[in-house]
Amino acid sequence: MPDATILGIETSCDETGVAVVRAGEQILSNVVASQIATHQPYGGVVPELASREHLRAIVPVMRQALAEAALAYEDLDAIAVTQGPGLVGALLVGISFAKALAFALDMPLIAVNHLEGHIHAALLERKQQENSDLQFPVLALVVSGGHTHLYLTQQDGNSWTYRNVGHTRDDAAGEAFDKVAKLLGLGYPGGPIIDGLAQRGNPTAIHFPASQLKNRDRNRPQEEVEDQPRFDFSYSGIKTAVLRHVETHSMASEIEARRRALAEIALPKSEDYLRLCDRATLDLIASFQRSIVEDLIAKTLAAAREYDVRTLLVSGGVAANRELRAAFERKAGEEGIPVFFPSRLLSTDNAAMIAAAAYPKFLAREFLPMDFNVEPGLKLGAA
Ligand code: KG4
Ligand code: ZN
Fold first, then answer.
1. Ligand 1 nearest atom to the CA of residue 181, by list position
2. Domains of the chain
C-alpha cells in the first residue's frame, strides 16, 4: 500500500491537532485548535486546563480533518498518535482517542515521538515541492518551547536513526522567549510577540553574552562527555541577564503599566504591543533575540562541520522566527550547506508532522499493541 493514508493525532501540549496525510507527504487536511486564549490569563500552559481543552476539541477537530480531506473513516489505512514527550494528561487524551479509533475501525496503530514529528515537518513540503533526494548525513535542530536538540540523522532502509549530539542543559530556546516576554509584561506565548517587536529595535544596542556552559551536564555520565564532542546549549543565563538589565535600568513601572494595559485587551494585535513599548524596550527585545539566534546558528554550524553534514533541517516552534530563518539561510549558505525549514504553520505543533513521521513506520510495519502507554519523558535516538 505505497500511498497509505494516515490519520495523525497530536495533543502533547496546548494544540489539539488532527491531520490526514497520504504517503507521508501529501497533506489532505491539517486542523489545529489552539488553546492560547485559555492559557493566556495564566501566562503559560496550565496542564489540567490543557487536558480539559483537548477533551473538548478532539472530536470536532477530527471531524473537521476528515471533512476537509473529503474522506470517510474506511478510507484511512492507519492511526498515528504522539506518544511523548509532553504533558502526561494532554498526551493521554490523544492516545486514548487513537486507541479507541484504531480498535473500532480495526486499523493499525502507530506511535510517534513528537520530536521526530518536528523533524519530518521540515521534509513534508519539500518532498511535495521538489521530490528530490535528501543528502545524508542530515543534522536536525529541533527548537521549541520544551526542547533544544541537535540530532545527527541517517536513513537505514525505511527507518530513520537519530543520534543526539547536543541539547539544552537548562531552558529551551522557546522557553527563554516565553520567560523574557513574561518578564517584560508582554504575555504568552512570547516567541511570536518578540519576533514581531524585534524587527523594530536595534539588535546591537545591548550585548548579551552567548550561552556559557558552566554547569556539568547532569543528564549524562562524565566519561561520555569527554568521549565525543558535544554541542550543548544553555539559555537560563540570558534570561537572568535580561532581568538584571530591567532592574538596573529601572524599567519595572513601565512593565507593570504595559502588563495592565495588555490585560484589558482580549486578543492584542501587533500594533497594541508596539504602542506599549518604548525605544529602550524594543532595543532590549531585538538584542535578546539576536543573541539567541546567533548562538543557535553558531552551535548548529559547529556540529555540522564536525560531522560533515550535507543537509540542515530546522524545526519546532522557534523555527517560525523570521530572524532565525533569514540568518540561518545566510550563514549556512556561506558554508555551502542547504538548510530547510517547515513553513511557519508547520513549525509549531501540528498533526500533519505526526502522520508524516508515521509513514516510514507504516512501511516497516512498526505497529503497536493496544496496551502501549504514554511516555511523557520519551527520548529520541541514542545519545
Ligand atoms: O513546537 P511548539 O509549538 O511546542 C513545543 O513543542 O514546545 O513550540 C512552541 C514554542 C513557544 O516557546 C513559542 O514561544 C515559540 O515556540 N515560538 C516562537 C515563534 N513562534 C513560536 N519563538 C520565536 N519566534 C517565533 N516566531
Ligand atoms: Zn513541539
1. 14
2. 5-134+346-363 (3.30.420.40), 165-337 (3.30.420.40)
